[in-house]
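Hi W., the NAP complex you wanted:
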Amino acid sequence: MSTQPVPTMKAVVRNSFGPPRVLEISVVDRPVPDDDQVLVRVRTASLNRADWYAMAGRPLLGRPMMGLRRPKSNRLGTDYAGVIEAVGKNVTGFRPGDEVFGGRDGALAEYVCVRHDRAIVHKPPNATFEQAAAVPVAALSALQGLRDRGGIQPGQKVLIHGASGGVGTFAVQIAKAFGAEVTAVCGPRGIEAARSGGADHVIDYTRDDFTRGDDRFDIVLDVAGTRSWRHLRRVLAPRAIVVGVGGPKDNRLTGPMSHMLGLRLGAMFSRRRAVFFIAKFNKADMETLRDLLADGRIAPVIDRRFGLEEAVAAFDYMGDGHPQGKVVLVIGRE
Ligand SMILES: NC(=O)c1ccc[n+]([C@@H]2O[C@H](COP(=O)([O-])OP(=O)(O)OC[C@H]3O[C@@H](n4cnc5c(N)ncnc54)[C@H](OP(=O)(O)O)[C@@H]3O)[C@@H](O)[C@H]2O)c1
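Structure:
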């Protein structure tokens, strides 16, 4: 009696926390979709700072969730775009051959299985797999930060602090899509992308200190997290809100949390508010992002592409903290 070989795939794996060199490309079992899942052949994945934290096992405060001594999961990644290869018998709305994108743990692999009712949507035909894979975590964070936490309204003055990276490039475009007047703060290499993303004003933080300017903002989306409440409050309108998205990763124990806490404490005795949030995947928001991508209101900025075998170099590049837009891993081609 002959037994069928178990289908396999390549995936980025690691068995310990540490720098990018802990990553390996291994051959692992290919996942098998259950009745409610689709099997996606990944064409492109994109990297987020969260993947870097998961690789490094930082901040240390997160270790109870990630694994105290070694990672609970040996897989990495979230954002993917690809083609559906198989569907479970309860799946509606997707068929083999459909081009899709979304978020799923372990996306740095040739295949992922995803529940059909989760954060997976059809890729617009006008978007490439690279563009679609760039969207999920970064654009979702910008959308939920500006709309749900910031309550963005047309005509408001919005400042994006850290406008040139993964989240920031989407935040500029999404704030414009909501009809805001947008000021982008970024380094010199991001100025052009901020302008073409629609920013009304661009401030190069290496030349000018935006907290010394005369403008007052209704919303500050704080992606970079390099300025304290004492500085940010100078540019806040009377009922403004600072939406904290991220912060420097240097603090091994707390990561960006110490900056967030500083903002919250600073705002405690002020009429201005500071909030922090963690973006959450849901289908409705992925559909919103798909529509924005389809009609060109968001155009992902891709800084660099790497192959799956170059995962170590890709994480090294992203870890430096100054990608201009998104870093993608090209995993499969037809
Ligand atoms: N809360 C959430 O749900 C959520 C979701 C996604 C990401 N995040 C967090 O958000 C942060 C940014 O993520 P990302 O993917 O956009 O990272 P990224 O691609 O590395 O972008 C970082 C941005 O910060 C800017 N920056 C660095 N130093 C700066 C300084 N001194 N002054 C002003 N800007 C500075 C960079 O500009 P230059 O390159 O021009 O220096 C760049 O625009 C990270 O901390 C990440 O963990 C949080």
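Residues 48-49, 137-138, 141, 162-168, 185-187, 189-190, 205, 223-224, 226, 245-247, 256, 277-279, 321-323 surround NAP (CB under 6 Å).

W.
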